[in-house]
Specification:
about 90 residues; single chain; mainly alpha; two-stranded antiparallel sheet; about 60% helix
Amino acid sequence: MKSSVSVVTNLTTPAVARRSGKRSTNVYLTAENVDAARRMNINLSATLDAMLAEAVRQKQQETRKAELHAGIQAFNAFEREAGLFTDDDEYGVL
């Protein structure tokens, strides 16, 4: 059975958190991975923060893509039903 290690960011006071824009949190990681990262001098906080930022960016992109797809589908349905103003014979006539 793999064991887990709790990693807590070292921010001593809420004032420090406000100034730095960071928040203390608990993260449970596999002990073997934490030990290997420490041996390699990998900054866990910076690494996890970068990975989380990328995951958030990807999720936001997926959400925007889904919203845009819904909007495009709605416009296409409207166009099929009502047509476009450029389809009018009088379009562009002064």
